[in-house]
Amino acid sequence: MPSLTGLRFVAAGGVVYTHSFLLMNPDVEDLRPEVWVGASSVSLFFILSGYVLTYSARPTDTAHAFWRRRVAKILPNHVFTWCLVVAALIFTSTAATVSVSGTAANVSNLFLVNTWIPSQRFVLAGNPPSWSLAAEMFFYLLFPSLLPLVVRLSRRGLLIGAGTAIALTWTWPMICTFVVGPDGTAFFSFWSVYLLPLARLPEFVLGMLTARIAMTGIQLPRIGAFPAGMSVIGTIIFGSRYLPETCTYAAATVIPIVLLVHATAELDRCGKASLLRTSPAVFLGEISYAMYLVHGMTLALVVLPLKGQEWNGIAIFPVALPLVVLASWLLYLGVERPCMRRLSTPRARAAATP
């Protein structure tokens, strides 16, 4: 489904947009839409991941083979960018790298376990955008056990499961808003709703269920990809003004996003015209993972020289994006693609393939 590959670039672009804004305006306190575009983009990544892995699952695949392919995809880029960031911190004598606690936090990021720890020092350690990889690795660990359960569900069970996943996406943020929030533990609410891998599992499972719904022929509301995308934008604008902060991380946009993923996939299943299926969009989607990991470093190189010249995040985005794309392409060509070819398939099987 090439249109879903193109959609990945839209999600990566949303993250780059938000981080451009935040780097130029680090003291922003109000829930402006620019801030929550990135949060919704991460939710889109999680739902897309569950959808694509389920739709493309091989009946004869084994858990070991699946985990091998996921490790070959995720770890090389992560380890490479982590080394670059930590080397830069050491070179600039940043205190976080010379203290014991800083070293422990950075190492926890290397092993993708840092977001399980409710500490700002840990969740922002190493290469900060890689925090979501801890959630993805958690999803991948569970996927071989979750897939048979999802496949065995009846049509009614799939719809009930999807409704339950959506309800869970809303339940915990509301608990944090009305039970945890009043105690003044703002960071704990943010961590437990946005960063904790277990809290993001319903979005991944919702993507899996939506894929099975499509594969079994259940008719969902007929909404085109463009109207679904506009509904996501409209929800972000509305939610940033009227909804509790914890609900804007994922809950507010979960239904529009899952409809967007379904509608985009339908473009390919029905052979309809799709801008996301064009060669440039597919290429950008293929380098989107590299873009996600390398954009923070690239933005820092662009933002720091311009920060004192009264640029804002919206203006700097079109300047920084081409440089981010270039850096992502180099990482994709130099690290991601070669490692995928060498590591995703056992050597014995690769040697036997003519």
Assembly state here?
single chain
Give the overall average pLDDT.
Answer: 85
Bulk shape: globular
Number of domains: 1
Major beta-sheet overview:
none
Instruction: Give the low-confidence spans.
Output: none
Domain Acyltransferase: 3-332
InterPro entries: Acyl_transf_3_dom, Acyltransferase_3
GO molecular function: acyltransferase activity
Organism: Streptomyces coffeae
Written description of the protein model:
It is built from 16 helices and no strands. By secondary structure, it is mainly α. It has one domain (2-352). Helix 1 runs antiparallel to helix 2 (33-55) and helix 2 packs across helix 11. The protein is globular and about 60 Å long. It starts with a helix and ends with a helix. 44% of the residues are buried. It comes from Streptomyces coffeae. Keywords: Acyltransferase, Membrane, Transferase, Transmembrane, Transmembrane helix. The chain crosses the membrane at residues 7-24, 36-58, 79-100, 131-151, 158-180, 186-211, 223-243, 249-268, 289-308, 314-335.
Give the arrangement of secondary structure elements.
Elements: H1 2-24, H2 33-55, H3 63-91, H4 95-98, H5 100-110, H6 120-123, H7 131-151, H8 155-180, H9 186-195, H10 197-215, H11 225-242, H12 254-269, H13 279-286, H14 288-306, H15 313-343, H16 347-352
Helix pairs in contact: 1-2, 1-12, 1-13, 1-14, 1-15, 2-7, 2-10, 2-11, 2-12, 3-7, 3-14, 3-15, 7-10, 8-9, 8-10, 10-12, 11-12, 14-15
